[in-house]
Specification:
Shape: globular
Number of helices: 12
Structural class: alpha+beta
Distance between the termini: 21 Å
CATH topology of the largest domain: Jelly Rolls
Helix content: 40-55%
CATH superfamily of the largest domain: Regulatory protein AraC
Strand order of the largest sheet: 1-2-6-11-8-9
Number of strands: 13
Number of domains: 2
CATH class of the largest domain: Mainly Beta
Length: 298
C-alpha cells in the first residue's frame, strides 16, 4: 500500500502485488503477518474498506471514536476517514477494499452505497453486528469473492462487482431499524445532499453558517436543514459542525500546530470562540482531548 502525506496523516492507495488496483481482498491473518506484529498507526484510505472480524478482539478507532472489535462485527470505512486497528493477538477475519472507480466501472452508482446506510456520512461509524446464521450466509458470499479475486477469469471484475453488491445488500438487511433510510425520500433529496456535502468539503474553513450554503444553492436555510435531516439524520448545521470538529481533531493529532493556529486554519478568528465551540460539542476542552488521544493512539 502506497503512502502519501496529507496533514501528516498517512494516506494509502490500494495496491496488490506492487500494482495499484481498484479492488483487493485480504484476510486479517495475512495483514497481521505482513506487518510482522507491528502496531497499526492512524491512517486514511483513498478507498472503501469492509473489515469483518471473525475471531478477534481489539479496538478500532474511526475518526477518533473508539469501538471494540469482537467476533462478527463488520466495519464499513469510507474514503478519507482516519482509522487505526489494534488487535490483541493474531486475528482472523476478512478485509474487502474497493475504490470509487471500481464501483463506477461495475455500474454501481455511489448513491447505492449511500442508500444502504452502511458507509457513514458522519464521525459516528459503529460496526454492524450479525448473528451466527447471518454470518454463515455472508461467509458463503465472501468465499466467492476470495475465489474470484485470485483467479484469472475474463469476467473477474464483473463477478467481484456482483458478489460485492450482493454482500452489501445482505449486510443492509441486518441494520438496526433506526439506521434505515426512507429511500423514496432520500432519492428526492440526494442531489441536494450531494451538492451540500461537496460545498462543505470546499468551504468549511470559511463558511460556518447554514445560510451561506443555502444561499449558494438558491434554497432557504430551513429547507436545506430539513432535507439533510431527512436523508442522514442530522441537520445541515450539525453536519457543518461535525466537519469542523473532525478537522480540528485531525490537525490536533497529526500536526504540530498550536490550538490558536488550528482555530485560525478552520475559520475561527477568535481562538476562545473555537475553544468554547469545541467544549460545547465534545464535552471537554480541546487541549484535554488532544492529550488523552495522544496517550491512547500508540
Amino acid at each position: 500500500m502506497q503512502i502519501s502525506g496529507n496533514n501528516h496523516i498517512p494516506s494509502l492507495d490500494l495496491v496488490h502485488q506492487d500494482e495499484q488496483v481498484s479492488f483487493a481482498f485480504r484476510t486479517m491473518e495475512e495483514i497481521y503477518l505482513l506487518k510482522g506484529n507491528e502496531p497499526d498507526v492512524p491512517h486514511r484510505h483513498e478507498y472503501y474498506t469492509i473489515l469483518w472480524a471473525k475471531k478477534v478482539c481489539g479496538l478500532h478507532y474511526i475518526d477518533y471514536v473508539e469501538y471494540p472489535i469482537k467476533p462478527n462485527y463488520i466495519f464499513f470505512v469510507t474514503p478519507g476517514q482516519v482509522h487505526q486497528v489494534i488487535t490483541f493477538g493474531e486475528p482472523e477475519g476478512y478485509v474487502i477494499m474497493f475504490t470509487p472507480e471500481f464501483i463506477h466501472k461495475n455500474n454501481i452508482d455511489e448513491s447505492f452505497l449511500t442508500n444502504l446506510g452502511l458507509f457513514s456520512d458522519s464521525a459516528a461509524t459503529p460496526p454492524l453486528t450479525i448473528d451466527s446464521k447471518a454470518a454463515e450466509q455472508l461467509n458463503k458470499i465472501v468465499v466467492e469473492i476470495q475465489k474470484h479475486f485470485h483467479d484469472n477469469n475474463a469476467f473477474r471484475e464483473d463477478l467481484l462487482g456482483s458478489y460485492l453488491k450482493i454482500f452489501l445488500v445482505e449486510c443492509n438487511k441486518h441494520l438496526p431499524e433506526n439506521n434505515m433510510i426512507n429511500l423514496q425520500v432520500y432519492e428526492s433529496g440526494r442531489n441536494i445532499l450531494k451538492e451540500f456535502k461537496t460545498l462543505v468539503e470546499i468551504h468549511y474553513p470559511k463558511w460556518h453558517k447554514v445560510s451561506e450554503y443555502a444561499g449558494e444553492m438558491n434554497i432557504t436555510p430551513d429547507y436545506l436543514n430539513n432535507v439533510i435531516k431527512t436523508t442522514i439524520g442530522k441537520t445541515a448545521k450539525e453536519f457543518i459542525q461535525n466537519r469542523l470538529i473532525l478537522e480540528a481533531k485531525r490537525l490536533g493529532i497529526h500536526t504540530q500546530l498550536s490550538t490558536k493556529e488550528i482555530a485560525f486554519q478552520i475559520g475561527f478568528e477568535d481562538p476562545s470562540h473555537f475553544s468554547k465551540f469545541f467544549k460545547s460539542a465534545e464535552g471537554q476542552p480541546f487541549s484535554e482531548f488532544k492529550s488523552s488521544l495522544e496517550k491512547s493512539l500508540i
